[in-house]
Amino acid sequence: MENTEKYIPVCECEGEDFMEIPLESDGTLSTATLSAYFPGVTGLKFRLDSYSPYRALRLYDGKFHAPEGSWAGHKFYCVHPKGDKRKLEETDCKPSKGYHSMNCTDLIVLGLPYQLSETQMREYFVQFGKLVMVQIKRDASGNSKGFGFIRYEDYSSQAKALGQRHYVNNRWVEVKIPASKEGYYSKVPHKIFVGRLTEDISEPDLSKYFSQYGEITDVFIPKPFRAFGFVTFNDASVAQSLCDEDHIVKGVSLHISEANPKSDQSRDKQVSNQQQYMSSVLTNGMLAAALNQVAYQTQPIPYQTHRTYGKVQDWKRRVYDM
Predict the structure, then answer these.
(1) How many CB atoms lie within 10 A of CB 144?
(2) DSSP state of 30
(3) How many CA atoms lie within 13 A of 39 on its CB side?
(4) C-alpha distance from residue 148 to each of 114, 122, 134, 138, 143 (Å)
(5) How many whole angstroms separate alpha carbon 89 and alpha carbon 157?
(6) Distance between terminal CA atoms of the chain?
(7) pTM for the complete prediction?
């Protein structure tokens, strides 16, 4: 039967609105297309009627094929990996993690021109997104202290503002997370571990896929190939939001987790080993020196005989090695 459908209705969870997803020219649905709209999805399922059990769609070579040769008359639901908290049967199903699920924080703006007003400050930073707070710190006399705070409504705007330099009223200013919160963010891993890689997935493939979640600073796949890789984000919160999820890249389900198998623990162990080695060297060196000194002081003193005035006398003379 010839398949004339160009779009099929897909819903992430029952009870939500359906989205029409475009099909390929050969009538199949690409996993890349599906994951672009529903990140983390690993399959599709459908029912013949409301009383029938779910049926899974056939996935082959990175493409979903129509059930019994036709997409018509069916509605499809996303399938998530086993153990995923998002279950299709729940009506309060949560959307995939991304910028919209991250929490914003106050950002400190350093080096502000002293003549700058809050209105001018808002006019500049609103280009990155909607602001919910703009404040310039002032002294008791009302004069600017040269710094202030801003807060965005959504996380993507905050990420944009943090990801570049700013030139405000002929002066470079710095936007950063306040020091009181910086310690926490610096300890949160920026890197994710990508498992289940296949050899046809390259570093550019990972970069292209994961860049939809945030700015990427590095992508690394070890050589020789070992079926895993690493992706480092500029923002640690983005990296954390992707952990414990599965993502489909080029038709392959990849598992994401934190990339901290060795980190500080191995480094501390290495330092400890170095300290033990140096202690051993010093101890053994001091012990060897002490033993040599004892051996030198207790070595036997040779005697020689010497004839004087017709008498044989014992003449004690220490013999030193020259």
Answers:
(1) 17
(2) E
(3) 17
(4) 11, 11, 8, 9, 12
(5) 33
(6) 106
(7) 0.33
Count the alpha carbons within 13 Å of 289 in the hemisphere toward its beta carbon. Answer: 6
Residue 76's Cα: distance from chain center in Å?
33
d(CA 52, CA 203): 43
Q: What are the Cα distances from residue 308, in Å, to 311, 312, 314, 315, 318?
A: 5, 6, 10, 10, 19
Q: How far is CA 211 from the centre of its chain?
A: 12
| Residue at token pair 């599906």 | 34
DSSP letter, residue 232: E
CA-CA-CA-CA dihedral for 311, 316, 321, 322, to nearest 10: -60
SS3 of the chain: helix, strand, coil, percent, to 5: 30, 30, 40
Q: From CA 162, how far away is CA 176, in angstroms rounded?
A: 6
Residue 69 CB contacts under 8 Å (≥ 6 apart), including other chains: 1, 3
Beta-carbon contacts of residue 109 (< 8 Å; ≥ 6 apart): 121, 125, 147, 148, 149, 150, 166, 173, 174, 175
- 13/268 Cα distance (integer angstroms): 46
One digit per residue, the tens of pLDDT, for the chain of length 322 reads: 445 678 889 988 777 788 888 888 888 888 878 877 777 788 888 888 766 788 888 888 788 888 888 888 888 988 877 654 444 344 344 444 444 445 678 888 998 999 999 999 999 999 999 999 999 998 888 999 899 999 998 888 888 888 778 999 999 898 888 765 544 444 567 889 999 999 999 999 999 999 888 888 889 999 999 899 999 887 776 787 788 888 899 988 899 988 765 544 455 555 455 556 555 545 555 666 655 665 555 555 555 555 555 555 555 454 454 4
The token pair that represents 319 in the structure block: 């013999």
What totals of helices (H) and strands (E) does the chain contain, helices first? 7, 20
Determine the Cα–Cα distance for residues 193 and 261; give it in Å rounded to an integer: 9
Question: Rounded to whole angstroms, how far apart are CA atoms 67 and 62?
Answer: 16
